């Protein structure tokens, strides 16, 4: 495929490594005959390191042998998380340190989890952009302060602590952005 056809979310091979493309910018030439440059920011799927890549629009980019499979979490131990493919029931094992950023958002029965498969091996997981979690502990709101947009810390069912609006109470469900960890809305 040509570099100008690469979109965010695609995995390409770059110098023998699978790179998950996260964002891209296009730099138009300022002179006649110059090539349009495509600048990609990505993440190495195996090492989790970030990388910047620059291609001309006519450069050929090799797409990686990569797939995403719908899975569900079976269980986890102190070192690994065990997943099951929902189509063929194949089981995958992911080290918890590789999924450390996603673990605080995963609850029992969470839908939309996908295993990142590279060369028939699970190299990570992908979770939905937002999840619903229950507040298990937070301080009560003070009456009369609803005119300002103050926040307070709240502990969610997975142990994650986020800032929520002052009117939220224990037992309520909230939507949380899994990319930033921010409160989105009531669920």
TrEMBL record:
Source organism superkingdom: Bacteria
Keywords: Elongation factor, Protein biosynthesis
Residues in Elongation factor P C-terminal domain copies: 131-186
SUPFAM superfamilies linked to this entry: Nucleic acid-binding proteins, Translation proteins SH3-like domain
InterPro entries in alphabetical order: Elong-fact-P_C, NA-bd_OB-fold, Rib_uL2_dom2, Transl_elong_fac_P/YeiP, Transl_elong_KOW-like, Transl_elong_P/YeiP_cen, Translation_prot_SH3-like_sf
GO annotations of cellular component type: cytosol
Family that this chain belongs to: Belongs to the elongation factor P family.
Pfam families, sorted: EFP, EFP_N, Elong-fact-P_C
Name this polypeptide is given: Elongation factor P-like protein
Source organism per UniProt: Novipirellula aureliae
UniProt keyword Protein transport present: no
Translation elongation factor P/YeiP central domain: residues covered: 68-123
One Gene Ontology molecular-function label: translation elongation factor activity
UniProt GO BP: peptide biosynthetic process
């Amino acid at each position: 495929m040509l570099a100008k056809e690469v979109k965010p979310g695609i995995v390409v091979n770059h110098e023998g490594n699978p790179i998950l493309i996260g964002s891209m910018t296009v730099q138009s030439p300022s002179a006649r005959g110059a090539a349009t440059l495509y600048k990609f920011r990505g993440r190495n799927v195996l090492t989790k390191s970030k990388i910047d890549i620059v291609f001309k629009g006519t450069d050929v980019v090799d797409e990686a042998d990569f797939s995403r499979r719908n899975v569900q979490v079976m269980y986890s131990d102190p070192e690994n998380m065990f997943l099951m493919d929902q189509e063929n029931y194949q089981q995958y094992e992911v080290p918890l340190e590789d999924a450390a950023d996603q673990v605080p958002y995963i609850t029992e029965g969470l839908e939309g989890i996908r295993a990142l498969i590279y060369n028939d091996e699970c190299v990570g997981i992908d979770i939905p952009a937002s999840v619903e979690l229950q507040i298990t502990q937070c301080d009560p709101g003070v009456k009369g302060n609803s005119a300002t947009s103050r926040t307070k810390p709240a502990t969610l069912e997975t142990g994650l602590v986020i800032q929520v609006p002052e009117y939220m109470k224990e037992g309520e469900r909230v939507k949380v952005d899994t990319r930033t960890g921010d409160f989105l809305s009531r669920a």
